[in-house]
Design brief:
260 residues, alpha/beta, TIM Barrel, eight-stranded parallel beta sheet, two-stranded antiparallel sheet, 17% strand
């Protein structure tokens, strides 16, 4: 019997027991914190995704709605209009591609993206925003990234305790919908609903998250909290956040890094 630890998704499995894996992020939005909107054009987004794959990305994460602080939400129709040509363009590629992840909080967008070839759903609200999303994941037999999030920052709370209680609720929703544990990844949500101090407390708590028995995804690429360690803060965060991505494997299985 194969004793490797695997993340199962719709089109296959991802081995988790070796090196830290890299998720390449392609944001098809006009105001992405990650790439500054350079992939807003579908052709540029497809080219960027292919480049990330060629550079060794293990997963390609495609998102059509900005999640930067202060963002304005968009309709499912607009979100699908943005990501559809990217997914269709990648489906036409003659090159072998890693599994595709759709970054969405909306069940309808996820359903369409999965039909277009996505194998993973990346939900920044951990199945707690759209009650139908977990059922879509279960029905399609795909993997899911369950991320911790908060509506607003609160420096007075114990952020690690909040994360653990959040994940308990999310896992309850997932299991209730029929999503198997071996298709779930946890994400502490760096840059989402946390103070500067809490970002570091969340990273320090990675061993506690891993103890829950799930793979952990850490997204620190181009996040501003690292730049605040420097005086004055650097104008570009690529170098310090890349360092965080490369050192984080000591404490977590997977790291999310974005590239232009």
């Amino acid at each position: 019997m194969d004793g490797r630890r695997l993340l199962r998704h719709r089109t296959g499995t991802i081995a988790l027991d070796g090196r830290t894996l890299v998720m390449g992020v392609v944001n098809v939005t006009p105001d992405s914190f990650s790439d500054g909107g350079v992939h807003f054009c579908a052709e540029d987004a497809v080219a960027g995704a292919l480049r990330l794959a060629a550079e060794g990305a293990d997963i390609l994460d495609i998102g059509g709605e900005s999640t930067r602080p202060g963002y304005s939400g968009i309709s499912p129709e607009e979100e699908w209009r943005r990501v559809r040509p990217v997914l269709e363009g990648l489906a036409r590629s003659e090159k072998a591609l890693p599994p595709l992840s759709i970054d969405t909080t909306k069940a309808e967008v996820a359903r369409r993206a999965l039909a277009a070839g996505a194998a993973i759903v990346n939900d920044i609200w951990g199945f707690q925003r759209d009650p139908e999303l977990a059922a879509v994941v279960a029905e399609a037999g795909v993997a899911a990234v369950v991320m911790h999030n908060r509506e607003r920052r609160d420096g007075a709370i114990d952020i690690v305790d909040d994360m653990l209680r959040f994940f308990e609720r999310s896992l309850g929703v997932a299991r209730g919908a029929g999503v198997p544990d071996d298709r779930i990844v946890l994400d502490p949500g760096i840059g989402f609903g946390k103070t500067h101090r809490q970002e570091f407390e969340a990273i320090a708590a990675l061993p506690r998250l891993k103890a829950l028995g799930f793979p952990v995804l850490l997204g620190v690429s181009r996040k501003s909290f690292i730049g605040r360690l420097f005086a004055p803060p650097p104008k570009a965060f690529a170098a310090p956040t890349s360092s965080a991505c490369t050192t984080s494997p000591r404490t977590c299985r997977r790291s999310r890094c974005s590239a232009r």
